[in-house]
Specification:
The complex is a heterodimer of chains A (about 525) and B (about 750).
Chain A (H helix, E strand, L loop, with lengths): L7 H4 L4 H19 L3 H28 L5 E3 L4 E3 L1 H21 L16 H20 L3 H19 L6 H32 L4 H15 L4 H18 L7 H8 L2 H25 L19 H20 L5 H20 L4 H30 L13 H4 L1 H15 L5 H16 L1 H31 L12 H19 L2 H8 L7
Antiparallel strand pairs in A: 1-2
Chain B lengths: L1 H30 L15 E5 L6 E2 L1 E2 L8 E9 L5 E8 L12 E5 L7 E2 L4 E8 L8 E10 L13 E8 L5 H8 L1 H21 L6 H24 L14 E9 L4 E7 L1 H20 L7 H20 L3 H22 L4 H28 L4 E2 L5 E2 L5 H6 L8 E2 L2 E2 H16 L8 H8 L2 H26 L1 H28 L3 H22 L2 H32 L10 H4 L1 H14 L7 H12 L4 H26 L25 H19 L2 H18 L28 H4 L10
Parallel strand pairs in B: 2-10
Antiparallel strand pairs in B: 1-4, 3-4, 4-8, 5-7, 5-9, 6-8, 9-10, 11-12, 13-14, 15-16
Helix pairs in contact in B: 3-4, 3-6, 4-5, 4-6, 5-6, 5-12, 5-15, 5-20, 5-21, 6-7, 7-8, 8-10, 8-11, 10-12, 11-14, 12-14, 12-15, 12-21, 13-14, 13-19, 14-15, 14-18, 14-19, 15-17, 15-18, 15-20, 15-21, 17-19
Classes of the chains: A mainly alpha (about 525), B alpha+beta (about 750).
């Protein structure tokens, strides 16, 4: 039941959110030029951003609510389906949270988004990035995947290096560029193998051709395997999976904290969206032998994804043990979390995908929250982001400390926090699939979450068990305080009652064919 | 300050948008289509059950005709399909060998036998009655099954019978008390959380008088203890599975997360009731012992209350998911309580405790998921048909062993058994997983040591009895001897380690290792006496060790050392204290006429028929136990008083004399000592309390007739030939009150 592709003009009707972002980018640039005083400038820009995001999320939610029929937009370049609408909502939420992070403090010199630089620049880039992520989640064409991935990457390079006077920030951007260039080069090479084999860039057509070849040979053709391995370089780079994670710690440490928080959640989620769609769409990798005629365990994909997951988790967690800089530690932790999500990915089932997406939602709250607190603490300590800055926080800023505790326990995966529920679904997807391989990686997975407790607990120890060098209370900006609470409450509540979110996610995974 | 206005403006916008979004998503929830009915041209009836009130589950109420002893309720069977619906049977879900509901429940279609075919759009009413006079149960949870030709849309195989949950609470004249009594377990569990909230509010309002928080916590724990006594008074010791509700009392059962089949399911039986009472008592004693804490009281008592909630919840939850949540919730406050208010090496001890327990519990979690995925179809409490379940009583009916599953090439039941066991063994703690215990005990403040030894260690043995024994009986038989061997190692190793200690607290900690070994040995015997001995030992060890740790705290508070070699002749300085320590030591070494004796004696009685050599080896442990207790007593209290203490800075405020044990300390010790003495002479109340529960556990793991066999059953997994496999279809064979058969 192929959905017939729509032509360019008719596609525009389904392209509203992206058009909104494009309009927002142009408006921001325009307003940046027109507005004279700083206050009006900021107010206008923020209003435009919020409007664009609200529009994107609102339209997507409306589509989901009214069960809009799935469409192949622009002659099959983009997919319009529940899956992409779900991710549009997620991206709008993440970007909205980041905008709150970026709101400058009262004084003129703005630490977070670069000293004395124009706010217009930053927010225009942020909107472009969100546009890119939306496109990633929607791409149904190899070239479109590449372009949207590059759009996100290039903007990320710029944002990572946004603090031009800061050598670390520039170093981060430089490393990011080089790794990104290599990764996307390899990816493009892999795509050319797939294209060479199938004579098509459209994922649906690739799938038909690959399925025919698979049926002919009785196994997945080696060419496809090589192509996919090369493409994994690009996907792995976006979700920071080992061994493509090398850039993560340096970039996360060097980039301005709001950008780091954004990179650890937004592009990672988009990377998973495109990864999931690529495997489900082009390779028809599902646990029900649909097109390939092969059981999923007869294909190389579960082993590939499982090995990637185990390596990613283990490397992320073991490296995080040594870190003294909390941002760097969270960077490695985000590598480890990509590993957990890859665990569920390796199952290639409906349950597994639901687990990934649900985990992404919970991860969003807890990881953004953790970065927010790092930012709030560092802001009052002249940018000191080491564990030492957290000493005695339990006394100096109890609310922040309690919130950080919730976020860190959630990241560890302890009940009754959202992270536990996320992990629970991941492991239950693995065990549901059964079989020796999944049991092995499940065991590696749970052992990893024990290891992760150790480094998260170092921050807890600093906050509560050690005495700080200063004893006066740390006052955190009101907006940060409010956002902290706004992120901590869902982290806790979703750990106690998550049924609506899970049901919502589980019903919104269908992709267009 | 324009920027601040701007910021609030933006925040307002964001919040507004978020609200709109949430509203949108909520709408999306409602309008997303359910799987559509396949339009295959065949007209089919579709069944739809709702109570008279329109709810999923049916709540029975007192009947209108004034008979105070009959409870009734009605529900409608509606045909929502486009073809005729044929009802073949309406019956209560129960059978002779598996009574799921208390006796006296019946159901009948209104208006007799006609109308068993229901036309599309029509409905038919059925009436459920419960006559509580015939039942012991205080409450009734069950299902009424309606078998029909209805096929679930999209399903290829025949659907299970539709069901509606029925629930009734025995009527009571005193309305407020009836409410409290029917929700006693959740009140006991969540009352301490009120303390956490109160402290949080106090913090928000900058409440400075932290000392009042102590009184508040003690008051809260006191109220909880009273509620526990209420529970004890109203607990029916003769209640068995035949009385319905799977043998659980004070059941509270509701759906929590529908998509994952997680239920809020509480209840107590003979296995858990003694632990709930112990927790109530120890939590109260611990709150009094917490008076020695002087720093950061708000945080301390908030964590303490959270810990108590976790402990109660673990013992009363009957849903694996809920159990796991409570199990882990207990972990978090413990980390902080040791880590912040502990001794010099508290950071190390706290993280060691945390990591050890978490490592065990993640494997337990994998085990729980395995149980869930391999369970049999059943119903949620409100009657929704489910294919998998977390409910412990339901899982107890599943013949996991007979499914012949494997994990990594090994029999799955064995793997899961070992994983669960290791998770629980870490908590007991069993050799070689015990190394966290001495560290945690030595560093923890007195009150936390009391809780740790008094209650937390028992969670390990409780978990083994509930999960390993209850859910995997065949694997338990396979591993019983190993368990007993480890028990003996624990007894001897713990005792010898205790003998080598110079730190009094470490000595008591190792004595815990030794004493918990008796529980393992008793369980490993799998005789009725053995299981009873395990429960008795758990309860008595809780009392005695709590007393011991409180007493250690008394001397530590005075001179900030616990080194045995630094004391001597304290008997002349603190005669009353000496008397209490002597009493506690005697109880701990198992002197007859004190309660510690019963656990050990019954262990030997229970273990001897199965494991003669092990029982004899364990008996030598008793000698070592006596030795280290008496030696410690001698070193500390007898002999000549060391005069250098007269000039100690700690004793300066008291004029160079050791101050005698004070009233506050006595309040926390005397109730424990009194119980130890009473139960020593008259253990019957305790035995009666656990009698049915231990027999029930024994029934699951041991086939009838094997109890008196002197040798252990041959190795390997016994084939369970009891007809223990029940399913919803059992109702066909033996329905209690079958409705009129269809044509």
């Amino acid at each position: 039941m192929e959905t017939p592709p729509l032509d360019n003009i008719r596609s525009l009707a389904y392209f509203g959110p992206e058009l909104g972002f494009i309009a927002a980018i142009l408006l921001i640039i325009g307003w940046d030029l027109i507005a004279k005083n700083r206050f009006a400038k900021l107010a206008g820009i923020l209003a435009i951003c919020v409007a664009a995001l609200a529009y994107s999320a609102g339209v997507s939610a409306w589509n989901l609510a009214h069960d809009a029929a799935p469409q192949n937009l622009f002659y099959g370049l983009l997919a319009f389906d529940r899956f992409s609408n779900l991710f549009r909502i997620l991206f709008a939420f993440v970007t909205g949270a980041i905008i709150v992070f970026c709101t400058p403090s009262g004084d003129d010199s703005d630490q977070q988004t670069g000293e004395g630089r124009n706010p217009g620049e930053f927010f225009a880039l942020l909107m472009t990035l969100t546009l890119g992520m939306n496109l990633m989640a929607e791409s149904r064409n190899l070239l479109m995947i590449y372009i949207s991935l590059e759009l996100v990457s290039v903007i990320s390079f710029v944002m990572a290096g946004f603090k031009i006077s800061d050598a670390k920030s520039s170093e981060a951007a430089m490393k990011y560029v080089i790794f990104g260039g290599v990764a996307s080069g390899i990816m493009l090479y892999g795509m050319s193998w797939i294209f060479g084999l199938t004579q098509s860039l459209h994922l649906g057509e690739c799938a038909v051709r690959i399925a025919a070849l698979t049926a002919e040979q009785g196994k997945v053709p080696e060419v496809v395997f090589v192509g996919v391995i090369c493409m994994m370089a690009g996907f792995g780079y976006k979700i920071s999976a080992a061994p493509f994670h090398m850039w993560t710690p340096d970039v996360y440490e060097g980039a301005p904290t709001p950008v780091t928080a954004f990179l650890s959640v937004g592009p990672k989620a988009a990377g998973f969206a495109v990864l999931v769609r690529f495997f489900a769409d082009a390779l028809r990798a599902t646990d029900t032998p649909a097109l390939n005629g092969l059981a999923i365990m007869d294909t190389p994909w579960p082993v590939l994804a499982g090995c990637l997951a185990m390596a990613t988790m283990t490397i992320g967690n073991l490296s995080a043990l040594q870190q003294d800089n909390v941002k760097r530690m969270l960077a490695y932790s985000s590598v480890a979390h990509a590993g957990y999500m890859l665990l569920a990915f390796s199952v290639f089932s409906e349950v597994g995908i639901a687990a990934i997406v649900f985990y992404t939602f919970t991860y969003c709250f807890m990881n953004l929250g953790a970065f927010l607190i790092v930012m709030a603490v560092a802001e009052r300590r002249d940018g000191d982001e080491t564990i030492a800055a957290f000493r005695g926080l339990g006394r100096r800023a109890p609310v922040q400390a309690v919130a950080m505790t919730i976020f860190l326990f959630s990241l560890t995966g302890l009940p009754p926090m959202a992270g536990f529920v996320g992990k629970f679904y991941i492991f239950s997807a693995l065990l549901h699939a059964g079989g020796t391989w999944y049991w092995v990686i499940a065991v590696v997975g749970v052992l990893n979450s024990v290891v992760s407790l150790f480094y998260y607990a170092r921050v807890l120890r600093a906050m509560y068990l050690e005495k700080g060098d200063r004893d006066e209370p740390t006052h955190v900006r009101g907006i940060f305080g409010a956002t902290t609470v706004a992120l901590a409450v869902p982290t806790l509540v979703l750990g106690i009652y998550w049924a609506p979110l899970y049901d919502f996610v589980a019903r919104s995974l269908t992709m267009v064919r | 300050m324009k920027l601040h206005k701007l910021v609030s403006l933006v925040l307002g916008c964001v919040l507004f948008c978020a609200l709109v979004l949430v509203a949108q998503i909520a709408r999306a929830q409602d309008t997303l289509p359910r799987p559509a009915q396949p339009d295959d041209g065949l007209a089919a009836g579709q069944i739809w059950l709702r109570s008279d009130a329109g709810t999923r589950a049916l709540e029975l109420s007192l009947s209108n005709d004034g008979r105070a002893d009959g409870m009734t309720g009605g529900f409608n069977i509606e045909n929502r399909g486009d073809g005729p619906l044929t009802i073949s049977r309406v019956a209560v879900r129960t059978s002779a060998n598996d009574p799921r509901v208390p006796p006296g429940v019946s159901v009948e279609l209104e208006g007799g036998g006609q109308g068993l075919s229901i036309a599309p759009g029509e409905k038919k009413r059925a009436i459920v009655k419960w006559d509580p006079r015939e039942a012991r149960a205080r409450e009734m949870y069950g299902h009424v099954l309606v078998e029909s030709n209805s096929v679930r849309p999209g399903a290829s195989e025949p659907s299970p019978p539709a069901a509606i949950g029925i629930h009734a609470e025995r009527p009571s004249a005193l309305v407020p008390f009836a409410f409290i009594e029917s929700h006693l377990l959740s009140i006991i569990t969540f009352l301490p959380l009120l303390g956490v909230i109160a402290i949080f509010i106090a913090h928000l309002y900058n409440y400075r008088d932290d000392r009042k928080l102590r009184a508040m916590t003690v008051g809260l724990m006191g109220v909880n203890l009273l509620l526990c006594i209420w529970l004890f008074a109203r607990f029916d010791t003769w209640f068995t599975r035949a009385d319905g509700n799977d043998g659980y009392q004070f059941v509270e059962h509701a759906v929590w997360i529908r998509s994952l089949n997680v239920e809020f399911f509480l209840g107590v039986d003979g296995v858990s009731i003694s632990m709930v009472l112990l927790t109530g008592l120890i939590a109260f004693v611990g709150a009094i012992a917490s008076y020695s804490i002087t720093e950061q009281l708000k945080g301390y008592f908030a964590m303490y209350c959270l810990l108590v909630t976790g402990m109660f919840g673990t013992f009363v939850s009957l849903d694996l998911f809920l159990f796991f949540v409570f199990w882990e919730v207990m972990l978090l406050p413990m980390y902080f309580l040791i880590g912040i208010w502990g001794g010099p090496r508290r950071q190390y001890a706290a993280i060691k405790f945390f990591i050890y327990t978490l490592a065990g519990s993640v494997f337990m979690l994998l085990g729980f998921i395995w149980f869930y995925l391999n369970s049999d179809p059943t119903y949620l409490v409100d009657g929704q048909a489910i294919t998998r379940s977390f409910s412990i009583p339901e899982l107890g009916r599943v013949a996991f062993h007979a499914k012949g599953l494997t994990i990594l090439g090994i029999a799955a039941v064995k793997v899961i058994w070992v994983w669960l066991f290791v998770g629980f063994a870490i908590k007991i703690p069993m050799f070689p997983f015990h190394t966290w215990l001495p560290d945690a005990h030595v560093e923890a403040p007195t009150a936390i040591s009391v809780i740790l030894a008094g209650v937390l260690l028992k969670m390990g043995t409780y978990g083994i009895l509930r999960m390993n024994f209850g859910l995997l009986p065949e694997a338990t038989q396979w591993a019983a001897t190993t368990m007993a061997v480890f028990g003996v190692i624990n007894i001897l190793y713990g005792a010898f380690c205790a003998m080598a200690q110079k730190d009094l607290k470490k000595l008591v900690a190792y004595s815990s290792v030794s004493h918990m070994g008796f529980c393992l040995l008793a369980m490993g015997a799998m005789t009725p006496q053995g299981i009873q001995a395990c429960l008795v030992q758990m309860f008595n060890h809780g009392l005695i060790t709590a007393m011991l740790f409180t007493l250690v705290g008394v001397v530590y508070d005075r001179v900030h050392t616990r080194d045995l070699d630094k004391f001597g002749g304290l008997a002349s300085e603190m005669p009353l204290y000496t008397a209490f320590v002597g009493f506690a030591f005697m109880a701990s070494l198992g002197l007859p006429s004190l309660s510690g004796f019963w656990g050990e004696a019954m262990t030997f009685i229970g273990a001897f028929p199965r494991h003669r050599v092990l029982a004899m080896l364990a008996a030598t442990g008793v000698i070592v136990t006596a030795a280290y207790h008496l030696w410690a007593l001698q070193r500390m209290f007898l002999g000549k008083f060391r005069e250098e203490w007269r000039h100690s800075k700690y004793l300066e405020p008291f004029g160079g004399k050791f101050p005698e044990i004070n009233a506050r300390e006595l309040v926390s010790i005397v109730p424990l000592a009194a119980l130890v003495l009473v139960l020593g002479f008259w253990p019957r109340p305790l035995l009666k309390l656990i009698d049915r529960g231990s027999l029930e556990v024994h029934r699951m793991v041991d086939k009838p007739g094997q109890t008196q066999v002197a040798v252990a059953p041959p190795g390997g997994m016994g084939q369970d030939d009891d007809d223990e496999e029940y399913s919803a279809s059992d109702v066909k064979k033996t329905a209690v009150d079958p409705a009129q058969a269809a044509r």
